[in-house]
Design brief:
- This protein is 66% helix and 0% strand.
- Helix 3 (35-46) runs antiparallel to helix 7 (137-144).
- It starts with 6 loop residues before the first helix and ends in an 8-residue tail after the last helix.
- With 250 residues, it is an all-alpha fold.
């Protein structure tokens, strides 16, 4: 009896059937791309947050499958855009349908930030936990790596609901040791909670939540033992251009 194919191989075969690309190229498209999600899940598991870790991995698998289908459509577009527009349109539509189906099966709205929103909630739980530990630098670093270097995109994600409402209000009651790492982690979690509470309305609210996410990344970097906003030039620019170059003292 043949052995069951690994999920990556199964997905590569499905993509090959839709795109007619060589199997080896489809395997390349299916290479893991959610390393930061896996790393955060590992750190959550280490500190006993098993359910949160399992949930993050499950969401990551769905997001990875959808992203892979979109990447496959983009691959066809890049190859045949100037030579076979009908093939591009037909294949891209089929890949988009497959991506949306993967999200819908898991209960996500395909046209939302829902999967990323659930990943951000896992990062919030990690920062909250790091705020209770004398030295939670590794945990805080894993949480920090979940955030994109794009404050306005982070603003959209943090204010998205995911499949269920999140308990960001727990940030108000966070307590822990007075070590610099723990204090910074709690500040980061509270900034995320404030950002999540900003109404989804106009540009003013969009930028308000973006600034709070820059604040969260600043403090998460402190908790991780890194220079604030290290390797995040776009967030540094947002701080300079829209926040007067200073993080609010709270």
């Amino acid at each position: 009896m043949p052995k069951k194919q690994p999920r990556t191989a199964q997905l590569a075969r499905q993509i090959q059937a839709v795109t007619s690309l060589p199997y080896t190229r489809c395997l390349k498209i299916c290479e893991p791309s959610h390393d930061t999600w896996v790393r955060l899940a590992r750190e959550l598991r280490t500190v006993g947050l098993i359910e949160a870790a399992d949930q993050l991995l499950a969401v990551g698998a769905v997001d990875a499958e959808a992203s892979t289908w979109y990447s496959a459509g983009g691959e066809i577009e890049g190859i045949f855009y100037y030579t076979d527009h009908q093939r591009v349109q037909r294949t891209y539509d089929a890949c988009s349908d497959a991506a949306e189906a993967a999200l819908t099966r898991a209960g996500f709205d395909p046209y939302s930030f829902d999967t990323a929103a659930e990943a951000y909630h896992a990062a919030f739980l990690a920062l909250s936990k790091a705020g209770t530990l004398p030295d939670g630098r590794t945990l805080a670093h894993a949480a920090l790596d979940m955030f994109a270097d794009d404050a306005t995109w982070c603003s959209d994600v943090i204010r998205s609901r995911g499949r269920d409402p999140f308990a960001y209000d727990t940030a108000a009651g966070l307590t822990g040791p007075g070590t610099p790492t723990a204090v910074a982690a709690r500040k980061a979690a509270r900034a995320m909670a404030r950002a999540a509470a900003v109404p989804v309305s106009g540009d003013e609210e969009w930028y308000e939540a973006a600034g709070l996410m820059v604040e969260a990344m600043w403090h998460a970097g402190e908790a991780a033992g890194l220079p604030p906003l290290e390797g995040r030039p776009n967030c540094q620019a947002h701080l300079r251009d829209f926040m007067g170059g200073e993080i609010a003292q709270r």
